[in-house]
Amino acid sequence: MYKNLLSSFYIAFDAVLANKMRSILTALGIIFGVAAVIAMLAIGNGAQKEILEQIKLVGVNNIVITPIVEQTEEEVESSTSNKEDKNFSPGLTLNDVRSIQEVVPGIEKISPEILLETYIIKNGIRRTAKLVGVENNYFDISNFTLSQGKFFNSEQLLKGEAVCIIGQSIKSKFFSTQDPIGKMIKVGAHWLMVIGVLEERLISEKSIENLGIRNYNMDVYTPLKTVLIRYKNRALITEALIKRAANMDNDANQSSEPKQSVNYHQLDRLVLQVNDTEKMLSISEIVSRILKRRHFETVDYEITIPELLLKQQQRTKNIFNFVLGAIAGISLLVGGIGIMNIMLASVLERIKEIGLRLAIGAKKTDIIYQFVFEAVMISVSGGIIGIILGVTLAFVVSEIAEIPTIISVSSIILSFGVAATVGLIFGIAPARRAAQQDPISSLRYE
């Protein structure tokens, strides 16, 4: 039995080698199908990993509220016409935070933020940076961890003490040879004491662009009240602001150009972490109504749900992957049909050979094994070439299109298994036809 199988394998191997060009052309469908499967799954895995990393960056189950500062076309038209002025809005403030906490159920954590463009000076080195006023909930919501030091304590948060937590890049730039904990660093006009250093977060430029997030490694974090007390509180109406507003009104009356918009919001960002994902939309609608009422029907804020946007993006990419998978499957099917057609043609070409083998004692099963082995060899060889081509294609796509790709062992095993199965299935029909040939008629065939 084993000798017959081995003999049929050798005969099939010699037949494939004797017709190299025909074998390669027969395997083209399998080659491109396997390559498409591997490349498609690599792109899909890379996209899924990127989505998960982005969700970690923006946090889980978050609702993000950001103020709108820029003027719209309607506002520009109203500022230059005789229409009634729009309603006054206090902007996004800490009072909004308290109202949301008191009224809206289902909110686990809430994190107000204030962002100021500033600079850092130490040992004669000056560099631009962002000062972020936060509370400790910010670090929990954004999944931040410390590499050194500690987070703010209740006294520092309540009194607005001059302390800060720095990003890893700030440490590398200003404290490359020393421990930053307990050291002073000048941020803007004030000196702050470093009490902690955050773990480094690797953020791609694509994530920064898509999610509108910052390079956290270059940020300086300080208690929210520290910013309001020591730096800037945009909710306070000062004499300077009144004079500036008066000057802007006079300039607007004398000029036809639209007024420049000024950021009057006390907060630059407000993040709500919700207990249940299914309640995110309903909670966002309630929050929108509260803010609209508190801002006197002026919608000068924007509410977004990053996780839902990312999941929608993931669904879109999944649809794209399914389309690619369908194309790859069709290619494998066409490749299998191609193998069957070529093998059927091969049976007609080799009728005399089949008749001779049957005449000298070969069994019908030996003929079936011979042609099945030929079909499987072609499909397996095509599968191996397709794997090499698919891996190469995944790397090329990653380098040229800057799309992350992850090649998994399971995709290689799946594609190779499908290729071998296709060869086996589509090789059976030609093999059975060859085995059914009459030896005498085959020997007389011209």
Task: Provide structural commentary.
There is one protein chain. By secondary structure, the chain is an alpha+beta fold. It folds into two domains: 2-54 and 311-443, no CATH class; 61-310, no CATH class. 59% of the residues lie in helices and 15% in strands. The chain is built from 16 helices and ten strands. The chain has a six-stranded mixed barrel. Strand 2 (107-122) and strand 3 (125-134) form a beta hairpin. Helix 2 (20-58) crosses helix 14 (364-400) and helix 2 runs antiparallel to helix 15 (409-435). The protein starts with a helix and ends with a helix.
Radius of gyration: 35 Å
> What oligomeric state do the depicted chains represent?
single chain
Provide the number of structural domains. 2
Overall geometric form: elongated
Give the spatial strand order of the biggest sheet.
Answer: 2-3-8-5-7-6
Mean pLDDT: 78
Query: How helical, in percent, are the residues?
Result: 55-70%
